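Chapter review: from sequence to fold.
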Amino acid sequence: MYRQHVEPFLTALVMTPHMQSMWNIRNGGVPIFVHTIDVAMLALDSFDDWQDRHGRMDVLATVVGALLHDLTKVTARQTRGQPTHRSHSMIMLLDPTAAAVAGREALTYVQETTGITLDDREQALVAHIIMSHHGPWGSVQPEKAEAALVHYCDLYSARYHRQPPIDANDILPLLDCGLSRAAAARTLGVTPQVVARRLDEACRAEWLDGIEQLLAVWRRRGHVV
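The token string follows.
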């Protein structure tokens, strides 16, 4: 791909209905779209170091694979309750080719709307990155440095970055208005467990024994730690 085509290609890819639909699916309170961007950014940050250690790598295929690796989370959510339903994890374990097909559909959409496409080698590498991103928890293992990098970044993002961007200061005003914790969680788009964890963290940070004391501090000060 010519260098001048990379930016419009990636812009078109991110704006496809396939990727934009990931805004509607949350994992741990964080949209899957945000997670995929995070994985791509982590891969870019680590790319030069990995290339120094593993030899020449394809940066464009790495980024594209990172952006498309979780598309089947959308289709998995859409088929809930149906006899053919499989979770994303089960797809990666039993039918990882389906994940590669989902990625290919997004790339085809970009080609049809912009005329820009990856070459056959890049497409094959992207497919391998997608199919192997679960590593030991999937049925396809990373065999290329690019795939190993995306697997590592996906795991790192899931463990350390996929945290809902809310804290007790987002929750307490809702509780002060009379909402329950469950209602506050629904309003903020996170799970009740996330709300409970954030409130507990704030109580420990403020050296308080419970939510009522935390609310009292918030009302007096306007914020909590």
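Two observations follow directly from the output. The first strand starts at residue 26 and ends at 27. The chain is about 70% helix and 0% strand.
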